[in-house]
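To the team - NDP complex, inputs and output below.
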Amino acid sequence: MKSRFKAVLISKDGNANKVEDVELTPADLMDGDVTVAVSHSTVNYKDGLVLRGNSPVVRRLPMIPGIDLAGTVEESSHPGFKPGDAVLLNGYGLSETHYGGYAELARVKGDWLVPLPKPFSAAQAMAIGTAGYTAMLAVLALEDAGVTPAKGAVVVTGAAGGVGSVAVAVLAKLGYRVIASTGRTQEEPYLKSLGAAEIIPRTELSGDPKPLAKERWAGAVDSVGSKTLANVLASTSYGGAVAACGLAGGMDLPASVAPFILRGVSLLGIDSVQMPMPRRRQAWERLARDLDAAKLDAMTRTIAFSDLRKAGEEILAGQIRGRVVVEIR
Ligand code: NDP
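Output:
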């Protein structure tokens, strides 16, 4: 094991917080029964918030950010893992209450780890990351609610982002007619290459919502929230379902109950962070089956550890297309 390793650290600096690259020793890590040599991480929207240093996401200081990691077990006293095992971790308080993935070493609870699914490399697992795993949780929720390709189209909002790109690719592979809503209409060729059948401009869904509108889709994966989610609900057809997973457009929900009580529409909440392990493993198994590797590669760009903070700013500005992998070591 490395005696010194590099990490990003957020710590108190007077009244503000500072975010800096530091060198730590294994003794600096928090308690856990598995130590992982982290090879790759990623940048999700939440990571962008944390990398600014003043995010409410972080609930203790100092903190190593990074809600995702993938790598190889170095030490383990957990019965499920042994040195050399390839693993990944999404959420479970990483970057909130426990040191996260932006470090060459992580010490975590073995109960949080998922064995790296066979078809994926550590880099591909992080190309998926929390964003892609959340997209799959949304798809599973829609399936459980009875949304099938035969029932109608599925709209994906924030389609060119991380959750959106994976949702588009997976839903298209499953045979759904995917309508992609984006503020970046220049990304139409990209979204069509992922499998979107129709592209609609974000502005079509961002105006003041009516209680009900014309029925346009049987299901939705929404990473935007606010008026967009309200408009999505108003246009969901009878008996349809909407998976709400994000707040890129705002945390409010200025909707009416009309879609629920007049059309039997369901609003499905998606939380990736504390999702119980059986569902996580199911989501990763389904990603292995239903996410085309070539499409995953096409939506992913790789950056160096030193570019993390720049990528954090870009994702908050809505400038990242698809997914970003960070090479940690
Ligand atoms: P990205 O930034 O990659 O994607 C968000 C996309 O939303 C953007 O690419 C953009 O898509 C669109 N968007 C951005 N700003 C606005 C705006 N003001 N109005 C309307 N659309 C906007 O982030 P992620 O995919 O990583 O995350 C998406 C959301 O999901 C975030 O809010 C994140 O916090 C949440 N999330 C929640 C999880 C959970 O457990 N529930 C897990 C993971 C993410 P386009 O350019 O195509 O319009």
